[in-house]
């Protein structure tokens, strides 16, 4: 499982970084999305990968913490997802505004000379 | 009750900002006074916090206040921490915010919706970032301040702003992802996000895990360095700062300092003298990057054609200097050096902020405002009937150019480090410390001394060139400048003047700030000694019943 997760994070991050460096603003935003997926999976994996263990402990009585997963990284992932979702939405608006104002989807607002 | 004062700098702008969202922009005057009230209140709270941080402590080193959010015991909940450094940054933030607000009330706030709310949310983020003692909470406050800054940068729209804004947002989103990677790596190794807890654990980390921790902190620092405008990560900064409206850029002058503050706080706490095998980690890199930033800033300043670009590059020089000195401090360069750098940082931040406010009045030609308003009106589809009431005829200051020229000259003196203003005092104090034997390679000390001199010289040449063009070689009629645009600049320069007159007191404050930063124990253990409010209640009740 560690191997699969590492490969998944790696593939997502690689594609994300490649797209982030592309000149079209839509590619940049998709790249940022992919990169944030990779990062979210990475945060999740920092709580150690443990199958079959819930992250929520029952209330009251004696609780054996070893049979539960670390809930903190899962909470962090949730926060990170919400924040990156919001900022990506904002970026999308700016992208559309730039497209409307400049008439091109190049990140610099103008096409590079093809000479 | 008084312990709740610590959270006030976050709550006040948050409540006021949210309240103002309920009303649309027809209530602009009320909104201005509301946000003015909120900002003045923040200044008062910040001053009270400084006084408290200064007063307490058995050995006179000042006390550190802790605030347990949600009343959770320290490593499990989020803590807010107020010590001398964060109290100082809070005061600096509200000192910049008040002039910026006054300036914005003239016309900038009219260029788009919800300027005042965004401004208050920026203050929430800034104050929160200075107060928090938890890494993930720091991330959240960074996002708050960034989200508000995106809105403020794009405020008024226009092609230049949208283009610069897109680069700025893309850059900062990527930096935020790096921030998350760094934080989660640190959590994966140590199992804590509390900075004080981290400082406690650092010396007892297993050797095989240590490299992971270093990698985590390094990746985290890249995110801070992007904010601080450190050299290879700062090419977006001049364009973005130049594109923003004047009061926005004036406020952004402190955004680089948030990055510098976070690096200073984290490295001093985690890689300080008590860090075992990790002591001094990253110091060399910080020095190198800081010096490179100063060089980049001074070259950029000499190469710039417009005042906006020059001001942005002088931001880089200022933050580069403080970054380099942070590196020196981590490497064991001494408390007095760091104290001088903190003093220099306050002075130069105030001066760059004033310079950003000066740009627009200085370059204003006839019809400048009218053209700008026509442009924004076009973008927002405002009717002509509404525009008529917008250009306030105002009060035209006589001998406008003289006043502007004096303000510009004072800014120049601070930034170039000429006597008698704080730039000079800070630089002399730094050079004095560097000349003394501080145990670091003398070549490094001399490089920093040389760059301090050189950057001052470059600032002098660059800004004097612009000043001559604007004030002496100008044939046109002097621009019309509103009194409301001069007052904020005068306020900022007044604070700079106050710093000069009260130089000894300010330096004494920064000196004990620096020495408190070197003694991490009271921060690292104080958090755990803070009793929960519930426990305090029970003890009190028990005491009363007995």
From TrEMBL, chain A:
Domain of life: Bacteria
TM region(s), chain numbering: 6-21, 28-47, 75-97
Family annotation (InterPro entries): CPA3_antiporter_subunitC (IPR050601), NUOK/Mnh_C1-like (IPR039428)
Recorded topology in the membrane: Multi-pass membrane protein
Pfam families the UniProt entry points to: Oxidored_q2
Main localization (coarse): membrane
Swiss-Prot/TrEMBL keywords: Cell membrane, Membrane, Transmembrane, Transmembrane helix
Protease found in the keyword field: no
Keyword RNA-binding belongs to the record: no
Cell location: Cell membrane
One Gene Ontology term, aspect cellular component: plasma membrane
Protein family according to the UniProt entry: Belongs to the CPA3 antiporters (TC 2.A.63) subunit C family.
Protein known as: Na+/H+ antiporter subunit C
